[in-house]
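quick one before i forget lol
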Amino acid sequence: MKPAYLHKRHGRLNAQHAAGAMAIRVYVCEKCEIRHRPKDGVCICHDRNCAAKTRNTPPVQCRCGSIAFTAFPSDTEAKAWLGLRFLEKNNLITELRRQVWFDLLVYGPDGQAVKVGAYVADFVYVEKGKTIIADAKPKSGTDDLADLKLKIMGAMGKPVKILP
């Protein structure tokens, strides 16, 4: 009989953190916000001189001339960032931040809070005066550890919005 973690359930991957191992790093130009990532040996920015032709290789220079890039662990997260940046530029959201840490706390029988881990939110921003914690997840779903962390965040009164 297989161990429980090797069974495929609910469209999830077979092992913990397997999605992160399969993700292809994406680089977004900080000036013109073009995504750079390899696809079939060619960068999706369609620039023949782009160096991002192999997996996880950062580009040297964007076609706009900029050499400043922001790295993202996946294309899903990069697209979500660009969507949120668009909302921020149009003043629909404010105070957009990336990779914000939250302590995961549970309360014991004596009422004392105990830190059991940490959760790193992909994005935190303010929309209509309310702070929103958001996470970009792929269509393939999340692993069990991510599900547990999201449930603990919700139980702490800090629900996480999942971005497509």
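fyi The chain is about 20% helix and 35% strand.
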